[in-house]
Amino acid sequence: MIKKNSLSTSPKKKNVKDKQSSPGAMQGWPGYRTRDGRSGYDPIDTRAEAAHTAGTIFQKLFTGQVRNPFGLFLLGVLGLILITPLILAISEMVNGNLFSWDAWILLLILGVAGLAVLINFIKNLIKIIK
Fold first, then answer.
1. DSSP readout, 64-93?
2. Which one, 9, 19, 25, 37, has the greatest CB density within 10 A?
């Protein structure tokens, strides 16, 4: 009879970190570029972390989770900037100056985007006030 060599598997030690459950284990997440053995000056990791932060800010802006008054102010200004050309075009139409159809399409797209941003601004403002 040949005896099989069994590989013994040791259970995980309690002191060893599980790298997948650590928030700094993924590129772009805060803490990844300054993980063990790194200086934090890697340009690729720095850009990835900046992109992750910007994405998080945009996600919070458009999902109604803004808690920063400055970010909310910027959202309101963006909405006003986007809707202003449509308002000016409508006032010119009332005065008798008509634009071509392709200009109206562009103005309507900007106006709808501006209106959506302003609605989001109002929702965020209501959440902050409550």
1. T----HHHHHHHHHHHHHHHHHHHHHHHHH
2. 25
Rounding to the nearest 10 degrees, give the CA dihedral for residues 113, 116, 118, 119: 170
Q: Could you tell me which of 101, 57, 104 has the C-alpha nearest to residue 78?
A: 57
pLDDT tens column, 11-55: 555 445 545 556 566 777 777 777 777 777 878 888 888 888 888
Please answer whether residues 99 and 90 qualify as being in contact, where contact means their C-beta atoms are separated by less than 8 angstroms.
no
Of 104, 24, 121, the residue nearest 68 (C-alpha): 121
* CB neighbours of residue 61 within 10 Å: 20
DSSP reduced 3-state for 91:
helix
Decide: 92 and 64 in contact? Cβ < 8 Å: no
Please count the other Cβ atoms lying within 10 Å of the Cβ belonging to residue 42: 14
Sign (positive/negative) of CA torsion 10, 11, 13, 16? positive
Residue 32 buriedness (CB in 10 A; 0-12 / 13-18 / 19+): buried
Please give the single-letter amino acid code of residue 74: L
Beta-carbon contacts of 59 under 8 Å, excluding residues fewer than 6 positions away, are 65
